[in-house]
Amino acid sequence: MSLPLKSLALAAVAALALGLGPVSAEAAPTGVKNIVLVHGAFADGSGWNGVVAALQAKGYHVTAVQNPLTSLADDVAATKRVLAQQDGPTLLVGHSWGGVVITQTESPNIAGLVYVAALAPDVGESAADVFKHGPAAVEADAIQPGPDGFATIPAARFHSAFAADSSVKEAAVMAATQGPIALAAFGEKVTVANWKTLPSWFLVSTADRVINPDLERWEAQRIGAHVVSVTGSHTAFVANPAVVAKAIEEAATSLHK
């Protein structure tokens, strides 16, 4: 509950007199304040809208990367451009293919990693290689290659395979705005595994139909991540942004730099 205006004004005067600066009704984050969100294939940065709003309400500085999805190198470059704009330690969050991107992206201001229903390859592995470590998801075949070398998920299957916990209408919008990904990107091997040197968290989507939840759990164990289970689809962060934002906030709070 916010302070009455009179009390807030008096508190501000007192704080200024003590050299403490202006008072805000919302306390500043106690850990890392910068959060960069990296979307995956068949999506764009707007998928994070609910998470962004929830984190901004807590005082975080949040930026969503817009990946071109044309190659791993291109997506890493897009992420590095955003990281260069941050004014301090930053928590890097990647969803799905975005997990490959945050695994490869090197920057001195990355304080930690959060994988959201993501792929976390080891050095010398590609996204395609990660899938070999576990059973295929029930609707992995929804990903369809096109004649131009890019893959998409057909609108007719998008709700069931990708966003079952969103409404049919919401999923239709997501399908219409999805970002096709270059198929060749799935075969590109990472040369860096950031999770080997940075604290990591892994949000497992328990009803994921694109990446098998058992594979996600295996990945989380392999990288030594703090594990959080999220009930929902591959895009649970769209349907339940507050739950995912809370997990990200807990990770950021634990990183005292």
From TrEMBL:
InterPro entries, sorted: AB_hydrolase_1, AB_hydrolase_fold, Sec-Metab_Biosynth_Hydrolase
Record keywords: Signal
Signal peptide per UniProt: 1-27
Pfam families in UniProt: Abhydrolase_6
Gene3D superfamilies: alpha/beta hydrolase
Domain AB hydrolase-1 residue range list: 35-247
SUPFAM superfamilies: alpha/beta-Hydrolases (SSF53474)
Name listed for the protein in its UniProt record: Pimeloyl-ACP methyl ester carboxylesterase
